[in-house]
Design goal:
Elements: E1 2-5, E2 12-15, E3 19-21, E4 24-27, H1 29-41, H2 44-50, H3 55-68, E5 74-78, E6 84-88, H4 90-107, H5 113-120
Antiparallel strand pairs: 1-2, 3-4, 5-6
């Protein structure tokens, strides 16, 4: 998610990039964070703990990512016993890198003339609800 704060800090532009595969989110900020956590921690469960996510939720996100891309982003490993692990594939690292680049490009929108023009007309806080 990309936030660009205004001078006073009361208004800001929020851009959330999501890559869709049909009705599924193939990549978004949370999935990118999970991929990075898997790369750092070497397992889905450790990655989930590191970012404050349940194992089930992390596993479902991994499953969605692997189903949406032409190649798996995460490979799971087992040795036939209780020990296993996971790693981000080379393709997963490529997708992650390109997604992070899109997020950096989105930051530029908050520095553009269109945002500055809109910001000039945006209230600091919303008006109270009015009964019609």
């Amino acid at each position: 998610m990309v936030h660009t704060r205004a001078m006073a800090g009361a208004t800001f532009l929020k851009i959330k990039i999501q890559i869709m595969c049909g009705s599924e989110i193939a990549m978004g900020p949370g999935k990118a964070d999970l991929l990075e956590a898997i790369a750092c921690n070497g397992s889905i469960s450790a990655a989930a703990r590191a970012i404050g996510m349940s194992y089930r939720r992390a596993w479902l996100l991994v499953d969605t990512m692997n189903r949406c891309w032409e190649q798996p982003l995460i490979a799971t490993m087992t040795d036939g016993g209780a020990r296993g692990g996971a790693k981000v594939t080379d393709f997963g690292n490529e997708v992650l890198g390109r997604f992070r680049n899109l997020q950096k490009q989105a930051l530029l929108l908050g520095r553009g003339a269109d945002w500055h023009e809109l910001e000039q007309h945006l209230r600091q806080t919303p008006l109270d609800h009015q009964v019609i």
